[in-house]
Automatic annotation (TrEMBL):
Keyword field contains Translocase: no
Name assigned to this protein: TNase-like domain-containing protein
The organism of origin for this protein: Snodgrassella alvi
Ranges where the TNase-like domain occurs: 72-200
UniProt keyword annotations, A-Z: Membrane, Transmembrane, Transmembrane helix
SMART domains: SNc (SM00318)
Range of residues in the leader sequence: none
Domain of life: Bacteria
Gene Ontology molecular function terms on file: nuclease activity; nucleic acid binding
Length: 216
């Protein structure tokens, strides 16, 4: 049993490295090649995790029990990362929460740097136990929250690394002056250092990208 677990753990490490390589390769390979490979990597990782759960005696998940928490705080395991600002978290009761990261906006998957943003968040928190501070429920009944991992603000980290924008038009209504200033400062520094999406000086904000898609 231990040997099988070790093999599966090694496979997960390989898949993480594949995701990292795909992110780097995006510089010179077209999105049409990167996207399906990234999708395959994510599915393969999900299968490996399911087998690990079975070996650990956990029953297979036959259907997700969805939940929406009211404003407040809870903890859970990050089951999956949908994109650079949306994740699924399973709480201690086995209920799955769809969480939209508060105060940031990551590139859409079909947008430049969208896959890189998702993969960065995936490598940082997927499979890990986190705290969630729910600040609102959006129009799609998603929890809007701040994710904390080992006392680190993951939402802020995404901005610091150039994986997401500070969603200032929304954040003005949700953040206090100190928090708003911290995120603004992080974005300015990431842009000055040309980190992540800021490699492109004329990067299009996700809200602008979505509007362009609607107008087509």
């Amino acid at each position: 049993m231990h040997k099988r677990q070790k093999i599966l753990t090694n496979w997960r490490k390989i898949l993480v490295w594949v995701a990292v390589i795909l992110t780097i390769a995006k510089v010179w390979l077209p999105e049409s090649i990167i996207a399906p490979l990234a999708e395959w990597t994510q599915k393969a990782d999900s299968i490996v995790r399911s087998v690990q759960d079975l070996l650990n005696g956990k029953p297979p998940v036959r259907g997700k029990k969805w939940a929406v928490a009211s404003k407040g705080r809870y903890s859970g395991n990050v089951d999956s990362v949908h994109d650079g600002d949306t994740v699924h978290i399973r709480d201690k009761d086995g209920h799955t929460h769809k969480v939209r990261l508060a105060n940031i906006d990551a590139p859409e998957i079909k947008q430049a740097y969208g896959i890189a943003s998702r993969d960065a968040l995936k490598a940082r928190i997927e499979g890990k136990y986190v705290d969630v501070n729910v600040v609102a429920i959006d129009q799609y009944q998603r929890e809007v929250g701040q994710i904390i991992l080992n006392n680190a603000d993951i939402n802020l980290w995404m901005v610091q690394q150039g994986y997401a924008w500070h969603y200032d038009s929304i954040a003005k209504k949700q953040q206090d002056r100190l928090g708003f200033g911290r995120y603004q400062s992080a974005q300015i520094q990431a842009r000055q250092n040309r980190l992540g999406l800021w490699h492109n000086a004329s990067a299009i904000a996700p809200w602008q990208f979505r509007q362009q898609q609607k107008n087509r």
